[in-house]
Amino acid sequence: MTEELKKGLEGVLVAESSLSFIDGDAGELVYRGYTIDDLARNASFEEVLYLLWHGELPTTEDLSAFEASMAEERGLDDGAHRLVRELAEADEKPMAALRTIVSNLSAYDPDVGSEPTDEAANLRKGRRITAKIPTALAAFSRIRDGDDPIAPREDLDHASNFLYMLNGEEPDDVLAETFDMALVLHADHGLNASTFSATVTASTLSDLHASVTSAVGTLSGSLHGGANQDVMEALLELDDSGKDPIEWVEDRLDAGDRVPGFGHRVYDVKDPRARILSAESEALGEAAGTPHWHDYSVAIEEYLTEKNGLAPNVDFYSASTYYQMGIPVDIYTPIFAMSRVGGWIAHVLEQYDDNRLIRPRARYVGPTDLSVTPRAER
Ligand SMILES: CC(=O)SCCNC(=O)CCNC(=O)[C@H](O)C(C)(C)COP(=O)(O)OP(=O)(O)OC[C@H]1O[C@@H](n2cnc3c(N)ncnc32)[C@H](O)[C@@H]1OP(=O)(O)O
Ligand SMILES: O=C([O-])CC(=O)C(=O)O
């Protein structure tokens, strides 16, 4: 047993995985051998899900069957609908609502009685969870706004169908492609905190719904997936303040606050996903005549990279991309979950395939040798 303390498990190897490879010095991300740039340009989110869950890119035939099997699972059971409405009417926070919704999906899953490690059943459960999250999220968002939910359509792909259910109209090609690319970019990222959380839960032989529910809870925090919402709120605050971006960022650092969307446990350079999303955000700004969001972001990036050696992570440029697509700011993190659920499921399948209980240790630093004083004398 080693006595070396690795706070935050930094750099500790705890598993082998053939899902994603990250080179933090070069700023590279690879899913199952394919670079993220290649996948972002040449593969749909459904193809990436298939790649993560089945180990290889689908043939045309495999893909059509897979897309159809996902699309037919989009509908929610009545009980799930009622829960979505109840959470929206109670004004629950979107990530907390999603956590409750995912947990509740197991009540209606026909495979819920299967062995937790049954791979065929888990692939079916995984498809259902992944297919239903967008339906639940779009309905939640619309009910909060006083609108009726919109039923999913089976003829649209995963990305377009979500935007259709959210906005009530089919997205144009630019919006559909940008959103699909964002889903591809967020699908997996090694043993990030939420994925680790999913695998810890799976390692006790809890089931897939329990593992994904744990992961949603972990993703919600501001040091992880919650940062994309924080980034947009910061950019809106900067815009309102009328300050120069450099002055704004200096004030923020002087106040001892972190700048959301910067820094990363694994990357020492710019996150490759931020590189791709920066270009998307810029293009959307040029097309819509709103270049200031991207301009602010670039000014902040240049300042922090030069002065503090901090580079942007994926959350920094996804924020202005989603904003310019008209997506409500407080569902940015649930949208991250909509994509990352693919990676969580793939990692849980890997964990079940070669399972050992995950159970690290803490060094005890509390008192010893105490004895219980009778209550009346304490
Ligand atoms: C999808 C994702 O999860 S990507 C990450 C999303 N999260 C964020 O963007 C939140 C802001 N970023 C952060 O808080 C951190 O960079 C994390 C949580 C992502 C990584 O944390 P760690 O690897 O533990 O790095 P740690 O917190 O030790 O930071 C190292 C140093 O950089 C500084 N630093 C790191 N990130 C930031 C930031 N965003 N703003 C200002 N300073 C920062 C820290 O203050 C620390 O400085 P110090 O050594 O002088 O105290
Ligand atoms: O890997 C991490 O620690 C965080 C991250 O970028 C992700 O989950 O996408």
TrEMBL record:
- Could you name the Gene Ontology cellular component terms for this entry? cytosol
Q: Which UniProt keywords apply?
A: Acyltransferase, Transferase, Tricarboxylic acid cycle
Per the UniProt entry, the Enzyme Commission number(s) are 2.3.3.16
Q: Which catalytic residues are annotated?
A: 264, 315
Enzyme kind, highest EC tier: transferase
**InterPro entries reported in the protein's UniProt record:** 2-MeCitrate/Citrate_synth_II, Cit_synth_Halo_CitZ, Citrate_synth-like_lrg_a-sub, Citrate_synth-like_sm_a-sub, Citrate_synthase, Citrate_synthase_bac-typ, Citrate_synthase_sf
Q: What is this protein called?
A: Citrate synthase
- Name the species this protein comes from: Natronomonas moolapensis (strain DSM 18674 / CECT 7526 / JCM 14361 / 8.8.11)
